[in-house]
Write the structure tokens for this entry.
Amino acid sequence: MKKIVSIIIVFILFVSLAIFLNKGNKKDNQKRIVLWHWMTDRDKALQELSRQYKELTGVEIDVELYAPSKVYARKITAAAQAKVLPDIYGILDTKETFANYIKSGLVADLTEEFKKNNSALEKTFFPKALDVNRFKEGNIYDISPGIYGVPLDITIIQMLYNKNLLAKAGFKNPPNNFAEFVTQLKALKRIGINGLVSGWGELWLIDCFALNYAFNIMGEEKIMATFRGEIPYTDPDWITVFGLFKTLKDIGGLAEGIITKENKYAEQDFALERAAFAFNGSWCLNVYNKMNPSLVYSAMLPPAINADKPMMIWGGAGSSFVVNNNSKSKEKAITFLKWLSAKDQQAYLSKETQNLPANKDSLVDIPDVLAGFAKVMDNTTHPTIWKYNENSLVAERFDKGIQSIILGDKTPEQVGQEVQEEKEKQIAREKRRQQRKQNN
């Protein structure tokens, strides 16, 4: 009997201890925020800032890196399906996917925070950076208008030129228009210097370059009308877009193997002065400086074809974080992101990673090349802020068609016809899908 009583007493003590420890763990968890990201080049800086935040507030920020981005994207998708997303994370996908996360209740609406105190927080950011995380009134995704993410930094994709290589070809300044660009590329080829290099083995970079010129040649409304199916890809303006790639190929203005080259190898070519021009993003500064600190280069807009329309380039929030709407530490997560996006923290991130800060007040003491990216912020646009986007299969046919032009396998007219045929095929498929939906 005594033995049974002893066992019961030990059991009660064990349960009491477990309850006590569990309460302690809950208190600890309330002071711990989990953040997932994919940015290898920013991890060290984020770890340091999380350390500073813990010293300041006592709240631990558990920064977890999952790289490369493909690995991260798969992890986020799996976590969303299992409803085990962290307190803070980023969404690496289209605006439509972003909208689906919101509809599923996985993203907190931060509009109220941004609008507090006469929109004080909102006013600290570049509007183009916020637009990536903003859903406007009447958006096609049927999302309540508002801001759903906090931009960390800015990415702008444009061209760069090597000042020393241009000088060898007899030019003091970069080209002002496409005709001058062609002239300079021909001169560079004559003295054995590669012209333009980029990672056009990655279709999205071809897409970016081509749509930059589409904006310049025909303007945004005509592009959106094409995406809606109202203007065909056989239209003369689209043939002009395809034709510029034929021109660059015919004059030998493109680096050898450009359509099979991953961007990391294209970055090596430019950093090691094997090409005079590059088409790349603002993240390249960190890359080039590590590979060749003595590289003398600057940023420039792609040289325009149409002087009557602006050259628009892809840009906006390079990376953003959202807050898990189901997080038990939602308010603490929001408070941390507000601190992370404040002036001093943004300036530190910019200095350590050579990325443009999303906070306007932090845009001080940045390198001249980075300033060259920042000054064209008004020329930026991005698919995530467009009202319409092209069907992914049509976009793939578009980009691979351009690769075939560069190979010399097809003409601009042939590519325009093939892309339009794919467009009509996808329009018909969508009509059938909508019809089945109505019938059900």
